[in-house]
Amino acid sequence: MSEFPLFDTHCHLDDEKFGSDFREVLKRFSCQPSNKLIAVATGIDSAEKCLGISGQYSFVYPAAGIHPNSILENPQDALAQLEGLLQTKKFYAVGEIGLDCFRDYTPFAVQVEFFQNQLDLARKFSLPVLIHCREAWDPFFRIMEPIREKYGPIPGVLHSFTGSMSDMKRCLGLGLHVSFAGMITFKKNSELREIAQHVPEDRLLA
């Protein structure tokens, strides 16, 4: 058991990969009473499942959002449904949202539309954002930097960062925390490890 409490900002608890050991995973996590986590959604059905899980486990905080690679799997009125979920005041963040040019699951123009609308909803309900950005840095900053200039720092997390040193510094300029995931352990990712060393400790997540 960790001596210090953990706060995991990005868990897809509704993922079927948990399967039969779901309760055991959460039991081990909750051995430290101060441990908490955010159950991150990928769509409307996912958000509802995250909310249901949070009702069973007090240390789970649900998020609601539509992942860029999951947009076409959601109902046509998904954005309206998302707003309805957020109006319940039962969610703690908007995510996972963002842009992805690495996979071709959703037309990019549709990704941009959903990303912008979900950023608007996060601002409307005063919630932080949990952002996915993969090989889409230029359009990402074209969307985000005017928002930062108009409304001030954007609360949230850039999840699983894989950009350049310049991208990282621009993310910090937006007001975001920068999170590094498993890719930082790959032998070929020495540059990513170097970038992580330049993130201020109070803005760094792993």
Shape: globular
Strand content: 15-25%
Approximate helicity band: 25-40%
Radius of gyration using CA atoms only: 17 Å
Query: Uncertain runs with pLDDT below 50, 5 residues or more?
Result: none
Biggest sheet strand order reads: 1-2-3-4-5-6-7-8
Please count the helical segments: 7
What structural class is derived from the secondary structure elements? alpha/beta
Number of E-type strands: 8
SSE arrangement, N to C: EHEHEHEHEHEHEHE
Keywords:
eight-stranded parallel sheet; 7 helices; 8 strands
Describe the structure in your own words.
- This protein has 206 residues and is α/β, with parallel strands linked by helices.
- The chain has seven helices and eight strands.
- It has an eight-stranded parallel beta sheet, with helices on both faces.
- The longest helix is centred in the middle third of the chain and has 17 residues, at 108-124.
- The radius of gyration is 17 Å and the shape is globular.
In short:
With 206 residues, the protein is an alpha/beta fold.
Please render the helix and strand layout as text.
Blueprint: E1 7-11, H1 22-29, E2 36-39, H2 44-56, E3 60-64, H3 78-87, E4 93-100, H4 108-124, E5 129-134, H5 137-151, E6 156-159, H6 165-174, E7 177-179, H7 190-196, E8 204-205
Parallel strand pairs: 1-2, 2-3, 3-4, 4-5, 5-6, 6-7, 7-8
Helix pairs in contact: 5-6
